[in-house]
Amino acid sequence: MRKLPRFSSLFVLLVLLALPSILSAQGFQNGTLQGEVKDESGGVLPGVSVSATSQERGFSRNTVTDANGRFLLAGVPIGRYRVAASLSGFETVTVTDNLVESEKTTDVRVTLRLAGQAAEVTVTGEVPIVDRTNTSVNTRLRDDEFQKLPVGRSYQTLFNSAPGVTGGAGTGAAGNPNVHGSVDGHNLYMFDGVDITDPTTGTFAGNLNFEAIQEVSIYTAGMSAEYGRGSGGVVNVITKSGTNTFEGSAKYIVINDDWDAQNKTRNQTCTSAGVATRCGTGTSLERVKFDHENETMSFTLGGPVWPDRAWFFGAYEKAETISPQRQAVVTGESFQEALESPFWNARVTAQPHSSHQVWAKYHESPTNGFMIDYWGGPRIPLLAADLDAMTRQDQGSDSWAFNWSGVFGSKVSAEALYAETDEFIDVFPFRVSPLNNGAPHFNQRDGLYYNGATFTGNVLRPREQATAAATYYADLLGNSHSFKVGFDWQHLESTSFFSYPNDQFFIDADFNPVARTFTPNIRRDYDPSLPSTSEGNIYALYARDKFEVGDRLFFEIGARYELQDGSSDIGLETVDAQTIAPRFSGSFDILGTGKTLVVGTYGRFYQFIAQGFSDSFAQNVQRGAYNNSVWDGTQFVFRNRIVLSGSSVIRNPDIEPEYHDEFTLGFQQQVGNVIGLGIRGIWREWGDIIDDVITFGANNAVTTRVENYAPAQREYLGLELTFEKRFSHNWNASASYTYSKAEGNHFSRVLSTLGDYINADCRAGTATAITDPTIGNNGIIPCSEVQNGRNKTGLAPYDRPHNVKFGGAYTQPIGPVNLVLGLAGQWISGLNYTPQRSLNVLLPGTTTNSGATAAYFYDERGSEELDPVWSIDTSLELTFRLFNLVELGVKGEAFNVTDEQEQIQVNNLTFCENTAANASQACVNNRNVFGTATARGAFQPPRTFRATALVRF
Hints:
With 953 residues, the chain is mostly beta strands. The protein is built from 6 helices and 57 strands. β19 (293-306) and β20 form a beta hairpin.
């Protein structure tokens, strides 16, 4: 189900397009070309005609140097440009391969000689690695570089390659990494400047055809006022847009589990005579290999619609992945998860005038066929006893966007964007049993579920957004300024709509999965569910000024104002917050060449309050009302009607978004045209962290209030060293080392246990059997010490003090054949963890368990650490041209070449400090096996291979 654009949204777009034309913008897919023209003696040359011509698309922009010999071309679409400078009486100089990148300034410095025998001089331009006008911590990866490397085929993998980002292969992290101490749900994800972050969870919401990616720009600190709604990292994926040359590709990519190395690790625990111990001879974790080629077919095509004026680009990819056979818990039925991911996107770009550009795009990224055990899952059956109890899930996202940008004269331009994105999850039974039309049955005899799936229904998370930005360039008091203002609006929704199959749920005394019969006990007949939809809006205004002071100093001063509102599914106000975020940065050009800089930034960054917060106040309870019937020996007889109430969480109208203050200080050096070196220190401290506080009230009633919990804290300190060599002379490379420390007591995406039940006592065990009397007073301790005590403060679970990353590729032509060797790797500190135990929370003033639990830490967070983890990946590509028209090739990739299988997770975290002779066997076992791993997923994946056949033209 998709909804049409709302008329209000289109009205907002028209308003934005009507912004005064005295303003101009530099957008997410534009950069700036600026420079200076001098004569051989170093004198400035005013009145020089300067033209910049796109080497890929043919259009040109023209300007004239001012009285100081300077020129500026703003709002230039990204790509490579040929810049020519000419003046009567002087030789014309052409500088080629000037690379314009998004939100960066490419500096072109030209020296004209008096006219001689040569009519024209041609030189090679530079890549803007060091940019004094953009002091953010930025990692930029281009298609012609990362396609040569052994990398996972996703922008999330490229995100993980940036310094200061912890996650990725070998660390057990998924596609939502931690950036400079932030939690993994606080990043901002964009496609072509379009926000595709999940509005409900704050995690990434969309995938993308890897072959469609032109450039990935990753900001991890020091972002300017243009950026908001996120306090982690910012990832902007820019898609290809076609050129004046018809170009395309076809790839056949295959993996096979049977090619890969075997798991050589073992369960690290052994049990003998009831005593569990750490050992190296536990059960082997070898897997049954699955000999099947999982294939991906990928196609691209781009070219001119109208040369020099309009271009198109399209990409389609279909990946099919079939898992090894698995079995249902009771029936033993075999099944395989068959995933199908048909990703496609299309884009049209037009340059109707040299100073105006428009583009429109659409993309879809569904993945269908997940098999999930939501009864006890996630994807390995634990409580689903037969296949009828499994849930099928399809999910994905789509978006469309329209963008216009234009330049008016030498000082003004404008840009506006409107987009809609939609994330969806559809859940339904894997198959429908004829018994009760697939209604689920819970078997009281074995505690398992049969016959029906957990859900049928869907989740919808659409987002509408419109942005406009504007910049005006002027000289004031002899210094150049660029004043920019912008507006950003988003409308967010979060919908859940779930029911049980057949709107029934059975609780049986017994269930026979072979005969499909059951011994009845209770039947619940549910009312049809109502959708639960929360809504929210974000409005933002920002302004900034970039300006020079003399020839060496450059500053940027800005601020961002944001207003966020939200409402629950019955229109109850949940969020009404206003924030102002100042941003400052500066650079000092030590040598006056623009290549040796000292840079520093300060900023406050606010995290938008995700729609999941508003969802927590939902009143339309899914599967919330039913008739309860009991079996009387011959039939079900109505007993009573149950109506579940909506959320009882106490609203807090004064809730504020979480934020962090950030300082950075660094040094940057560009060496030659394509090499950059840098060192940067980064400090962050968080405030207004949102948490829920659960307490016992009158008559021991439980109350929950969400607030900006004052004792919650988080801090980050890091130092980064970087090396970057962009592609030239047959090779490119990058490397980084990050030393960091992330610490505090709150590392959850939203809610933690801090502040919970602090007016009660906690007990290690039961009233008759204390597990560990060393905790508190004979096993009894105030919950306030458990939840807010000193042992809750320490290192973040994602803290990695040392992290080395590297990657590079070398191209060697041998006659008509090109050999490309790629190498990538990482060395990273091991996971930290803490000895802990779950305690029972007692009702205040009693020795009765309340049913709630609390995690007690014996030491400060992160007191233990696994060994460092490292891996090396490599690739070899061989291509040759056929009749100088088509390029044919093959590529092989090996990941974790040395087959390292170090421990990366801990399965046994429960500890016991009781060493008394009468300590329980469970306590002894906890102490013996603490810190061990028992599952394959707790170790690095073995060496894997991927093969590709390719055609390019």
